[in-house]
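Re: [ENG-882] Designed sequences occasionally contain unexpected residues at chain ends

Forwarding the minimal case from QA. Structure tokens:
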């Protein structure tokens, strides 16, 4: 074969390889991850996206998820506190991209430094296996070229193969919009601050490795680029107008820091120098969050019981106050709790817009078709799977109805249980209340979603009214809704 033909063959091979590589990325990016309209499954992500600042945001791995009590910080400083911590095996670069997208001016971001995985460059299979589903919000937060870099340098192709195989076999079951929204309120009720405090007892997993083996920064994953990390944090602080502070993990064990001066002090000094150069404070020192007494251990050296988590959080609060990172504000716990509820309520509108079908003009009975296609029930409803009607349950209830993207008139056809004083309704985000029996004017600016807040008066249960044994506070029975939109 002549040299010219060899060159042409080589060039054709290179071009084919590049085209296939680009096509593979676009299939992954455009077809497998980004098009999915599923809202985040975690209410903590919803609160991060929806609550207004200034807030306290904490992101790390399970060391913070299990080992911090956000309620202490919220009570001390009067700020909405969102604990995003999940898994230290998820790359810090990905975490920072997610944070940068949704931080608000005035927020305080606290990053407890976890073990070497947290700051290394690698892809934990737990992360890559779930980037198509539960962790897609990490990927979506990346700009285009960062998504491409992750695909070529961080994504495990075994994870892609497993996901595509599951798709082909019909094993990927995506939860419906109503199930996800109901899950948000359930999570908020179960753990309003997002922590996983646990007093045990649970089995311990401490015989497989030494407590020093994964402390920052071990040899397992190489030394992190501290200067690059410092510059990235400083850039986020400037761009989003936030304060950022680092702190240390909680560690429990008899001899974890015995050789600290030899094994860890050099890295601590390097970290302090890098962060000091860009003005990022480091709160406390590693021993401030160290428990030699193993009665504070939950299941590993890095997970404390609830008592230890609260002690750690109080120390962190003191250090944040002393450093001037956080200053108390006069906002009550009740007001902050209401803000959380309203943030989740507001998120329903986006889910309804992306996941529901606009209801046509006419009257729609509350049956399975309407529930699955046109409506999302938020808090305050006792039978979201009802057939032909649904009851409110309590003093307030929230729902969203998907409409055409034009000016519409919406009427809630209902009857009242007990006292006949009618419920009130408002179209969020407006604050004007009206009788729920009157037609609701939905402007075109609502983009086809009527997010309705209902307030019920003189609510009593059938038990209180002597009409049965049902203890639920039932008031408002929604039977159908009528849509009248312009241009149809």
């Amino acid at each position: 074969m002549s040299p010219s033909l060899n060159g042409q063959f080589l060039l054709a091979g290179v071009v084919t390889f590049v085209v296939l590589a680009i096509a593979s990325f676009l299939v992954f990016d455009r077809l497998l991850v980004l098009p999915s309209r599923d809202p985040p499954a975690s209410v903590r992500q919803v609160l991060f996206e929806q609550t207004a600042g200034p807030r306290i945001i904490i992101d790390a791995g399970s060391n913070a998820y299990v080992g911090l009590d956000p309620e202490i910080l919220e009570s001390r400083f009067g700020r909405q506190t969102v604990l995003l911590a999940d898994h230290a095996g998820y790359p810090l670069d990905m975490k920072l991209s997610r944070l940068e997208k949704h931080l608000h001016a005035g927020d305080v971001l606290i990053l407890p430094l976890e073990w070497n995985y947290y700051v290394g460059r690698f892809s934990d299979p737990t992360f890559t296996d779930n980037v198509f589903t539960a962790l897609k919000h990490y990927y979506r937060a990346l700009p285009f070229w960062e998504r491409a870099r992750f695909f070529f340098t961080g994504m495990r192709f075994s994870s892609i193969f497993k996901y595509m195989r599951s798709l082909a076999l019909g094993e990927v079951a995506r939860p419906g919009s109503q199930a996800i929204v109901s899950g948000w309120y359930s999570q908020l009720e179960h753990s309003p601050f997002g922590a996983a405090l646990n007093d045990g007892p649970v089995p311990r997993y401490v015989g497989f490795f030494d407590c020093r083996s994964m402390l920052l920064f071990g040899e397992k994953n190489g030394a992190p680029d501290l200067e690059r990390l410092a510059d990235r944090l400083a850039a986020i602080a400037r761009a989003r107008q936030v304060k950022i502070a680092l702190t240390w993990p909680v560690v429990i064990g008899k001899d974890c820091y015995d050789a600290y001066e030899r094994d860890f002090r050099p890295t601590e000094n390097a970290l302090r120098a890098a962060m000091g150069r860009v003005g990022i404070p480091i709160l406390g020192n590693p021993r401030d969050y160290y428990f030699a007494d193993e009665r504070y251990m939950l299941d590993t050296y890095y997970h404390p019981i609830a008592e230890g988590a609260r002690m750690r959080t109080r120390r962190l609060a003191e250090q944040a106050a002393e450093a001037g990172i956080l200053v108390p504000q006069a906002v009550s716990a009740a007001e902050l709790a209401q803000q959380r509820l309203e943030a989740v309520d507001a998120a329903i509108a986006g889910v309804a817009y992306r996941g529901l079908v606009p209801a046509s003009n006419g009257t729609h009975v509350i049956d399975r078709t309407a529930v699955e296609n046109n409506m999302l029930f938020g808090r305050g409803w006792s039978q979201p799977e009802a057939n032909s009607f649904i009851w409110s349950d309590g003093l307030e209830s929230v729902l969203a109805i998907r409409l055409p993207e034009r000016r519409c008139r919406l009427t809630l056809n209902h009857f009242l249980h007990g006292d006949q004083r009618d419920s009130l309704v408002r179209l969020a985000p407006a604050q004007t209340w009206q009788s729920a029996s009157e037609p609701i004017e939905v402007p075109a600016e609502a983009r086809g979603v009527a997010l309705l807040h209902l307030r019920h008066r003189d609510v009593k249960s059938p038990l209180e009214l002597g009409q049965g044994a049902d203890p639920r506070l039932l008031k408002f029975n929604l039977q159908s809704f009528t849509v009248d939109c312009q241009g149809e």
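QA comment: On inspection the terminal residues look reasonable. Residues 48 and 231 are 24 Å apart (CA to CA). Proposing we downgrade this to a documentation issue.
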